[in-house]
Here is the input.
Amino acid sequence: MQFVMHPKVLYAFHSIQRNLNHLKDNRSPMNKYRTTPIDIGKSDFKKIGYQLIDTIANFFDTIEDYPVTRGESPMQLQKILGNSGLPKKGKSSEEILERSTKLLLDHSLFNGHPKFMGYITSSPAPIGVLSDMLAAAVNQNAGAQILSPMATEIEKQTIKWLTEFIGVSPTYGGILVSGGNMANFTAFLAARTAKGSQNIKDYGLFANQSKLIAYCSKTTHTWVEKAAILFGHGSKSVRWIPTNTENKMDNEILSQTIKDDLANSYQPFMVIGTAGDVSTGVVDDLDKIASICKTYDLWFHIDGAYGAPAAIIPELKGMFEGIKEADSIALDPHKWLYAPLEAGCTLVRNPKHLTDTYSSHPEYYNFSKNEESQSLNFYEYGLQNSRGFRALKVWMALQQIGRQGYEKLIGEDIALSELLFELAKSHPELEAMTQNLSITTFRFIPTQGLPDNDKERESYLNTLNEKLLDKLQQGGEVFLSNAIINEHYCLRGCIVNFRTSKKDIEEIVEIVVREGIKTHHELQKEVQMNVK
Ligand SMILES: Cc1ncc(COP(=O)(O)O)c(C=O)c1O
Here is the structure.
């Protein structure tokens, strides 16, 4: 007969055994001084920490010699990474750090490379890299003032400096978020609370008798559609207004569309102007949009995720004049303020609209509101509850670089973009298309071997430039992206990169033409094969 132990007896037996093991094991919490597998002793921490700093310093110093990317496929990368399961036992931090550093330095795309000008992600300011380490070490929960006393004050000061930076009143309030999408979402929801039905918090969109409608130019970034879908409005609640010949929102059509919607019992609630559109960098006529918003009592939001920092350039003041009229503004320090990812920011003319939208007071929070203490709990300003200390890297960089330094950096990025445009314009095999802020678009046009028929020629050029971009993005010499301008497939360079210099721009032009010629020959062969 088999002996079966009662489960309760079995549990007690195991529990005694576990405790005895703990007593024998010097890593046990039963010992007076706990040692854990997670901590790293002071001297080891210093040793591997200094090693890491050495490696990063060398990386920054020689980043130009790295390929921008190795263009490896996910399959190749999975092979390198290996597919082992969750490690059962831990290993030394030194070994882990060494391998991680190697994996990342050997197999990443470097947006800090001087020839990276693809999407709008900047070269990270080195001070931001150090600041992220400091922020992680102190690990503030910047959701509540009591949990992050100095961090909250620093974030408040950062917000104030950012208002000064872009030239709006320092009475705007705001919050640091993860990036452009979140910055715009945060404002979208505040706009809805401010302009929708008073009952919207209780009954949601059903509280509104009429459908809420948002207006933006057809060039606006995809976040608008995402917001409309995610927040229950539906994509049909966005009116994508056509652009004029300058690629700015056509404000005549905007006014007419608002009138038509009112006549049809819709409820317009916000207009989104763009300060630096994602494809070509165009800034809408912000002051005209502001006055339309005043006429119809609409919330005026500006998506300045990319372009708003250019408001610091004295010669561009006129272009950004209307920014002062905005009810809310999105801007992204991880774009043109050179902060490492992630850092976005929402600014709101009347911060009460943020608390109206996001504040709640659960009984388990003892974050008492004492008016005199002026405490600000950032969880009441946005979507996040627990929050990291993103402001630190922005605050530190603003001090290191200063207003003058930023004016110089942003001004130089614009000048380099203009240089790219001029070089493309004067090159017989390139066609310069657009240049705004620090974005230039252009395309490769071979001098011979193109179809005679206009339609076929355009279609061939679109295919050719698309293939050329693929080649450039894989090749590792330069990283550009694309834009569609008047149905032409174009190459696009966006310079938010303090490492890029004149030499890089000149070399990029040579690389594009050299690779363009090769791609043209390959495509011609492909076309001939298909004809046969
Ligand atoms: C104008 C604009 N708005 C919003 C975004 C989205 O920003 P993120 O990717 O940081 O969410 C971008 C990104 O390039 C942008 O250019």
